[in-house]
Amino acid sequence: MAARQQLTPVLRRLRLLKISPHTARHTGLQRTLTPPAARYLSSTVPRHFQPTGPAPAAAQSKLTSETYPDIKRDPRFAQLTEAHVAHFQQLLGTYSAVLDGVTRSDTADDIEPFNTDWMRKYRGQCRLVLRPRTTEEVSRILKYCNDNMLAVVPQGGNTGLVGGSVPVFDEIVINMARMDNIIEFDEVSGTLVAEAGCILEVVDQFLATAGYIFPLDLGAKGSCHIGGNVSTNAGGLRLLRYGSLHGTVLGIEAVLADGTVVDDLCKLRKNNTGYDLKQLFIGAEGTIGIITKVSIQCPQRSPAQNVALFGLSSFEQAQQAFREAKGQLSEILSAFELMDDGSQALVRQVTGNKRPLEDTYPFYCLIETSGSNADHDSEKLQAFLEDVMEKGIVADGTLAQDETQIKSLWAWREGITEALSHLGGTYKYDVSIPLKELYQLVEDTRARVDEAGLLGDEDEFPVRAVVGYGHMGDANLHLNVSTRRFDERVEKVLEPFVYEWIAKRQGSISAEHGLGVMKKKYIGYSRNPTMVGLMKNIKTTFDPNGILNPYKYL
Amino acid sequence: MAARQQLTPVLRRLRLLKISPHTARHTGLQRTLTPPAARYLSSTVPRHFQPTGPAPAAAQSKLTSETYPDIKRDPRFAQLTEAHVAHFQQLLGTYSAVLDGVTRSDTADDIEPFNTDWMRKYRGQCRLVLRPRTTEEVSRILKYCNDNMLAVVPQGGNTGLVGGSVPVFDEIVINMARMDNIIEFDEVSGTLVAEAGCILEVVDQFLATAGYIFPLDLGAKGSCHIGGNVSTNAGGLRLLRYGSLHGTVLGIEAVLADGTVVDDLCKLRKNNTGYDLKQLFIGAEGTIGIITKVSIQCPQRSPAQNVALFGLSSFEQAQQAFREAKGQLSEILSAFELMDDGSQALVRQVTGNKRPLEDTYPFYCLIETSGSNADHDSEKLQAFLEDVMEKGIVADGTLAQDETQIKSLWAWREGITEALSHLGGTYKYDVSIPLKELYQLVEDTRARVDEAGLLGDEDEFPVRAVVGYGHMGDANLHLNVSTRRFDERVEKVLEPFVYEWIAKRQGSISAEHGLGVMKKKYIGYSRNPTMVGLMKNIKTTFDPNGILNPYKYL
Lengths: 554, 554
Prior knowledge:
Chains A, B: It is an enzyme of class 1 (oxidoreductase). Chains A, B: Belongs to the FAD-binding oxidoreductase/transferase type 4 family. Chains A, B: Keywords: FAD, Flavoprotein, Metal-binding, Mitochondrion, Oxidoreductase, Transit peptide, Zinc. The structure is a homodimer. The first copy, chain A, is of the alpha+beta class. Chain A has 20 helices and 16 strands. Chain A has helices at 9-16, 21-25, 64-67, 82-92, 108-115, 135-147, 200-208, 226-231, 239-242, 245-248, 278-281, 315-328, 341-351, 374-390, 403-414, 416-423, 440-451, 488-494, 497-504, 529-542, and strands spanning 98-100, 128-130, 152-155, 172-175, 182-186, 191-195, 249-255, 261-264, 290-297, 304-312, 333-340, 363-371, 396-399, 426-432, 463-471, 476-483. In chain A, helix 13 (341-351) packs across helix 16 (416-423). The first copy, chain A, is globular and about 75 Å long. Mean pLDDT of chain A is 88; it is low at 1-58. At the A-B interface, helix 10, strand 8, helix 12, helix 14 and helix 20 of A face helix 10, strand 8, helix 12, helix 14 and helix 20 of B.
């Protein structure tokens, strides 16, 4: 980066405040590529509570059917028999493609990982896992299941956060991991076609060799499947720059409940011939079909990257800074993240790291730029920083000077989740709110918890802090309520208050995590009855027997 | 632009070749903002033939029902009565909201523009035009129509190219022009909410005052409605940069056939709560509901713009140039257009203008960059041009030095349609093909026409030229067959050959124009029976009586 050579007086002052490489190397926080391992049993806590803390290694999570006693097994679904298993064994041929817990008693340990989500918050009772290797196999599996009323759960990398990728009862798991071929990549157009079971990071590394990137990046990239990403309409870190999967996915191949293969594996950017049906599958969480292949438009990789972090006195100023960043950094802006002081104080408390800025501020923003020319990008970023400091929008800031410092600054944003997990249980809400009121939710929630006498520094108060952070560029807020212990009063103060607050602002109760089991009941806070009714029509049209991922979504 | 001050030796040579401002002012071709007026009667030519040439001002086009005698009026639909008209008059109140040709005989001239498309290629027989001003009015109109089996045609700016926005028989036209309010714009997030009848250019000019642009630009911007843009999933000039409407539209409000108002007017970038139903309405051409409001993500306006045009020896090199442009210009690349020499020769022949480059080449590419810093952009573009010339990818090129030259260079691309229209009738195909084979269609078609003895420079040959040009960045080709006169042999040589050729490459027979009446029958060339079957299910689910835009689309 050419930043060093071109510093202006304002920026020279900035540099005095920058974190040293030494500090950066010892932050102990890394840009997390995989979700932190769950450390807690959910058996003792209520279902909306995000459990944390150390957990006995061999302990079993509570069954989802126990956590949600109001969900009953649908009696229309058949019970698995030896004949069913024999059919699937013949169909899939190899032993490794069928994990059989129906006729064998020694497979429980093998099947367990397919029954449990990575947070160990949801746990199903499936006794049969099928691992097809071709679309044809998926088709034959589903046709048989549909004919025999056997419920199924499509499963990708099983990195979801709402219990969507594991069974509730004895649904058959159809795990897509063996469909992991990259089918083709066109280096001129940037169009990639790959099977659903490809791991995001593997695909991204493949694209890197050709100078491209996958237009999606998220913490779970080392485990999640691109089929799962599309099925859950994953958002992540690159959305601000490259837009949502609804814009970048060009086509899909999917298998319907009755085994019909829907070949919409279009590789074209423009195709106005009829309803864009693939869009329904994007974010459907496997409820209307199983995505088997994906065609997607990949952007060129940007060779230059810069990261800056700055402090602001108010949320009003954070909005001004965002507006200026969009205007001045425009085409090179690739992330604009917001952190409140509460969240940064928790990171500091847990890591003991020196803060990047000398003083503390009510808000911090992290800006990332990605472009094709490092000198140009540095120049733009410096001009922007000078401008916002001169205008008094930004109180103080620092610009990363190398890759280590870039990681270190990102750690103050991405380390929040981990820091919270060290401190006790957390109520987590992933919401979208119109930008103007984005932070108001945190303030109103904090005031409400405080008024109820539940918030304080001393151990007698169950709530340690109410903090907010998130993808400001996408109006996506993570509201986190950090607690010292479970206290029923806290949940009563929070819910349905938070959902009602969001509904009043026409926000979304699930910005990027989806519905799954967790938010199935709350869809009404973000969608009106007309919309939900139409969605139910769609579900019935595509899956009349309801065998696909039951008990979830709608 | 700083281009002038920073020219390298290679570029100094380039500048010698640049068109002079004088030449530019006299090209006679302008960047067309509105579609050229139609000049021909379609009564004497077959339906797939794009008619051109002067037409008597008061002449009447041929009725669509005559051009397509195999389309019969659906007898399930009721005939309009005085009682129906009286009901609508009471409902909409003002006289100007109801153009009544049922009980009055003096309204034929007023109604005619609503019956005829702008090319005067399609003409319906509607006798009632309704012009609602609110969603509530649209709802009440549709409920009544659905209850009384009255077919309707939703109509925006009526600038479509496939006959989708005018009636075929006596369908009631619901014209949206009076719903033209901009409802709100958030200057921080860039989210615009506006009524469907807003004219694209008006909205774009409104956004300009706030430093934003509408993420869509097209020739018909002075007339087309944003509701129509969304309903037809318009592509246009900015798609390469800002992606399709499937990615930028955040929400819609629509009215279903039975009058149900679907309020999905989400203003959030992220909302993973159920099926993304709005996507079905994007590109549905008014067949499942009438879009009444749109919420859309608008990007910041780029202050700097550069345009270059260069000559290449082969399509292979055009692909290489595109690849290099994506890599080196990356985030500032806003257009990459392809023109073959045949198309440029026609422009030269009609306008008599001096070509921008001294020599002729088999292919020409036009590159546009849009960015936030003029100096940076010029530097990138110059470095790119040096690089592609040094590598021998590009044979010669010119860089526009001012706004006049920018317009002049664009005229060589955008003037093709107008040039063709001066020379006789044209068979026009708007198709998507995987990039590698994009131009092969032109070569194969030309060879086929030639082999049939139909192509030649002398008047005895009905075909003057087979040319190709288009949005190379989007793999969207316009194949044009320029003829001297109508000759049945030409149509037989072209069809179904072109559609079959496209189908074999899994291309799209309609990249951006949609299906309408014109391509309803050909959807099978781009969509398999499974997809078409699912689409028909969707249509039935949303519009069981089939009153919305009948005889079209599927």
